[in-house]
Amino acid sequence: MSATATRIPSPTRQPRRPRRGLRRPGTLLLWLLLILGAIVTIAPVYWIFVTAVSPPDQVNTPEFSLWPDAMQWGSFATAFETQPILTWFLNSTIITIGAVIVTVFTSLLGGYAFAKYRFPCRDLLFVLVLVTITVPIQVIMVPEFIIVNSLGMTDTPWAVILPRSAEALAIFMARQFMLSIPDEMINAARVDGAGELTIFWRIVLPMSGPLIAVLVILTFVWRWNEFIWPLIALPSISSYTLPVGLNSMNSIYNSATGPIMAVSLISIVPVLIVFLLFQRRFVQGMASSGLK
């Protein structure tokens, strides 16, 4: 081997360039807008927390402060000692879980029927279902209460669960999602002798995981935060849900907002837990049901 072996030139290091995405002004503007949106979204929750843990004299002063002078948890104790918070929380939990089960199940059945079955006036019926989205609850409130009262369900959880058991938006999302399920798979199951309920239970439902996650989150948020109809259908204080109970506390604690904010902070926790449990499939389900 000769001493004058050819040396391989070492590669020269190139200076690091900034990431291609960050060089674009549009990307930077997008990040700024996202940060601004996050701040606007989190600000109310932050204000509720600060007000709940602030001393009463600091809450009632007109001066604005980003953090309490001393963190106190007396507002939570005052709320639980003077009001049946646990009863309201239990009522909201029972009504919301029952409504989620009933609404998700009826929405899946309705969406499956509109997507995979051929029957007379199917499209017209689907349009009529969609039209009900535009009808405000104030229009149907009186006849709805008459029906519920005549059935003897007033002041019971069923008075809130059953009138909202079929949501037009949920049926629409279920129908759009189930259009993506191949008809050949369903027809093959029928040829093999499977019944309609078997097909729905063993084929359609296992393929509808993202859709079910979306419906669970949306229905949970709707029912947990619902105020107007529970205020009418649940007149007894022992039957109140958390939003209705918060409204009654607003009249009792005229100037002390600490207990109200403490209960408001507690009412946010279940919604966050449900969203964290189903967040992985939430975006996938929204995209699958909204792009068709």
Automatic annotation (TrEMBL):
List the InterPro entries. Answer: MetI-like, MetI-like_sf
Intracellular or extracellular location(s)? Cell membrane
Annotated ranges, domain ABC transmembrane type-1 = 89-278
User: Topology in the membrane?
Assistant: Multi-pass membrane protein
The entry's keywords: Cell membrane, Membrane, Sugar transport, Transmembrane, Transmembrane helix, Transport
Q: Where is the composition biased (Low complexity)?
A: 1-13
Q: Region (Disordered): which ranges? A: 1-20
According to the UniProt entry, where is the signal peptide? none
Q: Where is this protein primarily located?
A: membrane
**Matching Gene3D superfamilies, A to Z?**
MetI-like
Could you list the residue ranges that cross the membrane?
A: 28-49, 88-112, 124-148, 199-220, 227-246, 258-278
CDD domains, per the entry: TM_PBP2
Q: Member of which family?
A: Belongs to the binding-protein-dependent transport system permease family.
Q: Which PANTHER family match?
A: ABC TRANSPORTER PERMEASE PROTEIN MG189-RELATED-RELATED, SN-GLYCEROL-3-PHOSPHATE TRANSPORT SYSTEM PERMEASE PROTEIN UGPE
The molecule here is called: Multiple sugar transport system permease protein/alpha-1,4-digalacturonate transport system permease protein
Q: What species is this protein from? A: Brachybacterium fresconis
